[in-house]
Write a structure and sequence with these properties.
heterodimer; A: 180 residues; mainly beta; Lipocalin; 11-stranded antiparallel beta sheet; 14 strands; elongated; B: 142 residues; alpha+beta; Alpha-D-Glucose-1,6-Bisphosphate, Chain A, domain 4; 7-stranded antiparallel beta sheet; 3 helices
Chain lengths: 180, 142
């Protein structure tokens, strides 16, 4: 279903912005696949009658990432473990850098999907990103993009002398409801 | 039992390295996460090592003892006996140093049990190899 034309402002009240990470390496059994929620962000979506005139922008606070779930490890992650990961993200991965996305081109796809291309500023580097934004029944909005950390100069986290690593590609997902 | 061989080169005279590897207060901190808890004799120390596994970590506590030393050949063996803090596992090892001018070789025979071993021998070998390689790099500036 097509997203109706209009000016929309979204944040954590309307949608969830999630980062999913995987694990790799000889000792990957010891690590966890993480679901991390960005808890401070804001996006604007200007959907025009002519879809190609549609624009999207998003900013996020790099220090607002909160670990919500860790799966696939040898032991369940406790609250302290989750806080420790958040500290590591702040100190060693994103380092509080600014996060900003601006669309450059939006094209209509099948079933009202918007194919969005733009630039993402992350960790001091700007790189292109493309993803599909889908509108559903009852104003539902969803989209996801796969980002390669090294494309932005981020060294994927590793531990245990390099035998436990976070996979370079992470998935960023937005899922929520358009404000009426 | 896992056996591994490594070498290090730090360009220092054999007598210097011989003193350094037998000084547990200097040697044990060269293991990442390792620290001397108490020096119990000139040849023995209570020690612990904290191994970070991402968010989680495992700590092994026990003793490190200099059990053999041949001053003429510059060969020495350290015996490590440790138990996982709060767990059932053990990490024991015999670490044999053979020094030559400017460096030396290290032969490690380790026995790991418990949670760490449950990851499989291949993982234990990879992690131990990483730990000892890191140790040899630190020996280069001991």
């Amino acid at each position: 279903m097509a997203i109706p034309p209009g000016h929309y402002t979204l944040g954590p009240g309307e949608a969830t912005l999630t980062v999913r990470t995987g694990k790799a390496g000889a000792a990957s059994k010891a690590g966890h696949n993480l679901r991390i929620e960005v808890t401070s962000w804001r996006a604007t979506l200007d959907v025009a009658e002519d879809p190609s005139a549609t624009a999207m922008a998003l900013t996020a606070d790099a220090r607002s990432l909160r670990v919500r779930e860790g799966t696939g490890g040898m032991q369940a992650l406790g609250d302290d473990d989750m806080k420790s990961i958040e500290q590591t993200i702040d100190d060693e991965v994103l380092e509080g850098s600014s996060i900003a996305f601006r669309s450059r081109r939006v094209e209509p796809g099948a079933d009202g999907t918007l194919n969005v291309e733009g630039d993402l500023d992350l960790a001091g580097t700007t790189r292109p990103v493309a993803f599909a934004l889908t509108g559903g029944d009852d104003g539902r909005l969803s989209g996801s993009a796969r980002l390669k950390q090294t494309d932005w100069g981020i060294k994927p986290y590793s531990a245990l002398f390099g035998t436990l690593k976070v996979v370079d590609e992470v998935d960023v997902e937005i899922d929520g409801t358009l404000p009426r | 039992m896992v056996e591994l061989d490594h070498s290090f080169q730090n360009g220092k005279p054999t007598d210097y390295n011989w003193d350094a590897i037998r000084d547990l207060d200097r040697l044990i901190p060269c293991v990442q996460g390792g620290r001397v808890v108490e020096r119990t004799s000139p040849t023995e120390a209570k020690a612990e090592i904290k191994v970070k596994m991402g968010a989680m970590s495992m700590t092994f506590a026990g003793t490190v003892e200099l059990v053999e030393q041949d001053d003429a050949a510059h060969h020495a063996t350290l015996k490590v006996k440790s138990r996982e803090v709060g767990g059932q596992g053990h990490a024991n090892a015999d670490v044999a140093f053979a020094l030559s001018d400017g460096g030396g070789t290290i032969h490690t025979a380790a026995q790991i049990t418990g949670k760490a071993a449950s990851m499989g021998e291949g993982v234990v070998v990879s992690v131990l190899d990483g730990l000892i390689k890191d140790f040899t790099r630190r020996l280069e500036s001991i």
